[in-house]
Amino acid sequence: HNFLSIAHKCLITGHTQNEGDSMHSCIEREKNGVLRSGPKYLPCQWIPVIRLAKKNGKPFIVQELDTSDVYDLKQLSEDLGNNLVETLQKRRSYGIK
User: Fold this and answer.
1) What ranges in the chain are assigned the alpha helix state H?
2) Where does the source fall among the domains of life (predicted)?
3) Would you kindly state where each structural domain of the chain is located, as residue ranges?
4) Is 0.85 surpassed by the pTM of this model?
């Protein structure tokens, strides 16, 4: 007898944990406390909140970004257009990865 068995496993929201979950939870708690004293209007106002959210050990490292650090990938895609697709197809046809 050949029986086909399929085990479908699903994650239940809130039943997983990783380092990011712990960090997010810590920042969320600090955020809720800070907002009691008034709203934050600028992204730069959140930097010290995030840095100081961790009560034990080293503070979280916050990498500040400037608008020059953000790239318009949609524009890049439009600029490359079919040229990128054609290049990749040619490379594959020659066996180049």
Assistant:
1) 19-35, 46-51, 73-93
2) Eukaryota
3) 19-70
4) no
